[in-house]
## 1
Amino acid sequence: MKLQGKVAIVTGADSGIGQAIATLFAKEGADVCIGYHTDLDGAQETGRRVEQAGQKAVIVQGNVGDPADVAKLFERAAELGTVDILVNNAGKGMGGTPVAELDDAMLEQVLRTDLMAPLFCCRAFIQLREKQGGKGRILTISSVAQHLPTPGSAPYGMAKAGIGSLTRSLAVELAEHRINVNNIAPGLIETPMTQERIDDPEKRDAAFKEIPWHRAGRPEEIAGLALFLVSDDADYVTGQTWTMDGGLTMNWGGA
């Protein structure tokens, strides 16, 4: 098993990509701290899957856009042992609102969840790992929106692009501590956030037309890449954004 004896925090682990990552990490030997915001049932299901894999689970409710809740998350994770892996997966989507029509509350919520929250979690993780003498893995799940124009969702794309910059900066900053920092930018993945679009035949066909693979990705596919990036197999990999999108970014605007 690739993560035997490790402890991982996965934020937004109550469904979709986060749930798939937590489940796979447990199957590979990690105990998992499951962070969630509102979906207790989903978080408990993730906990059941982790325990079914023979590992320990701790479930923590909170808003990772709030530094106080991040501190609580790490305090609870310590019940499993010293945290080795941080996966920043929690996020908030948006769409259909031009910049001129954005209200301050919406802007604050998107940027705090999609940009500041990963930074808050990284800061707590770095402080913890430095006390342990270094090492560890940071992985953030962003979006192909960090590479593409996002009309109607400018703050979302702006936040995701910021994650790419944060990944590069931290990779250099933390290299001396041997803390690897990487990022996955998924395309269209079958999750609760995208289910309405996938279930609507017209929206689905329009989306699939832009994707050379002509399908949505599965959370388990993202989890497989996440496992590689936090394992010893990827020790020489840091500061990178790994795009997993069925070719969408290669085909953008070309259809």
## 2
Amino acid sequence: MAFSRRGRIAAGIGAGIAAVAAAVGILALTGNADKVPGLNTLIKPPATCPLTGVQPHSGRVPDRPALAIKVENLPEARPQAGLQAADVIYEEPVEGGITRFIVIFQCHDAKRVGPVRSARFTDVDILPQFGTQTLFGFAGGAAPVEQRVQESGLNDVNYQQPKAEHAYVRDPNRVEPHNLYTSTGALYRAGGTSGGMPTKVLTFSDGVPDGAKRASKVQLDFSGSADVFWTFDHRNGLWVRSYDTGPANLENGHPITARNVVVQTVKIRETGIVDAAGNTSPEVVATGTGPCMVFRNGRVVHGTWSRPTLGDLTVYRDAHGHTIGLAPGATWIELLPNDKTPVITK
């Protein structure tokens, strides 16, 4: 029987699907992709890390979902550990004017991460963008927040979960509660790695976008305990973090750095949750639209962020409506309240 051109294409596609299905079936039986003829040419791992756009140090992108860990940022919690291995970090405002970090790993591991602290509603709104099977490590939280984590479908590996309790340790050399630590390896062992690769949330480009203006420093004054500066290091092509009190270093003595810093101006709403000191707990409004600034390569692109619903990804666009490409590498996303104004030094 003769096939039309459309029929031949359809038949070819069908044969390809059948071949993949057969190969996957063999893989399921054997558990060894190397023994399945042609499977590696049909199902290739990505060449670059999905959350940074760069090749991993090991040369192979790990087949696992994203892992988010909530890290404290009070002065008593500094210096923190493990942030240098993260792909993406969000800084969010919490009660009392302080900030905390959502530290997201996927391509690299850290043997010590912390201090780990409690979750917030903002985390549950941000993290599903990276895939609903994202692992989330944290140190408990208010009952309504923990309920939202359960309802979100995120893989809960907080320290109160029986499956993850051995993944956390107290450091006797640090003052409680600023002394809870974990590792990416321990949390992946607790939560598993079968959730698939994370969603590619950010867009990367090697070239600096058109319209970028010179910028050597930006100040983000969240509060008295988090007056943040990012200064561009031309020699290494990195933004270096500091505070009004001095450098922002990690436990290993290295500075906190990023290839990109995205300032996302956001609205804040109150949650009705009050901490022991009487401070109300705010929540970032993670949907809608607002101004943004993308800092990369010693330059800044002014634009707009948008995310219609929690089921959508946040997109950063320039004044012409084009998606702003980030420099391949680690990214810090600063969720800055809209009553704060970034101060840029050219």
## 3
Amino acid sequence: MSNVEELRRKFQEFRTACKTILPKVDPMLIEDVILRQQQNPQEQLMYTVEVFTDGSRDPEDVKKTILANTGMVPEIYDNATHYVVNHKITLETLEGIQKYPDVEQIKGDYSGITASKGSMHERGERD
């Protein structure tokens, strides 16, 4: 097996681990968090995190949960099935978010600043 083939195989193993361990989280977000944590291990990373839900929980309950966990009030879109908050995250944070049964998908983008960028993603197919 060539070095390039080995690299492809290892990357596929990584993607499989992402789907197994954090199945509700966009693999691109996982990859970005890992790379940035490796580059700056002492820095807390600020992301605009978007959580898509099935709408089964009371939006006020979701809002209170997010406020209690982040100290931030989320923006709410799409008939209270799409929540957006700017917050410092880790892989452990993402793992905690995905534990809620109503959460269907988690996406996000590195912001590097404290101001929220608002909604930037559409609900979509998972990789």
